[in-house]
Amino acid sequence: MEVTITQFRQKVFELVDQALEGKEVWVKHKGRRVRIMPEHPVDKLSRITPMEIIAPSADLEDDSWKAAMMREWDQKWDRRLEPVSKPARAASASGRTGAPKVARKVRRTA
Q1: Claim: this prediction has a pTM higher than 0.85
Q2: How distant is the alpha carbon of residue 92 from its chain centre?
């Protein structure tokens, strides 16, 4: 909302209340604009009002639907991504696996 300085003088308390609620308030004076805003920003999430439940007769405590849905998801997952078997690596005599060896820098101390 943009108002002139004269309108601002007439409605100063109303406009400050609007700014505190989070609405933008601009005052125009001699071709320049000034914005009025609260010191600490308004938390928009705190102003959200909860919605009504779409299906008030639904039982939210009943979890019988969950097991059937999970089975269906698992079946779709298995169809799309078949499990891949990985060959097992044999451990060497030193107890290490067949991982590649990495050269290490040796730090010499005097």
Answers
A1: no
A2: 47
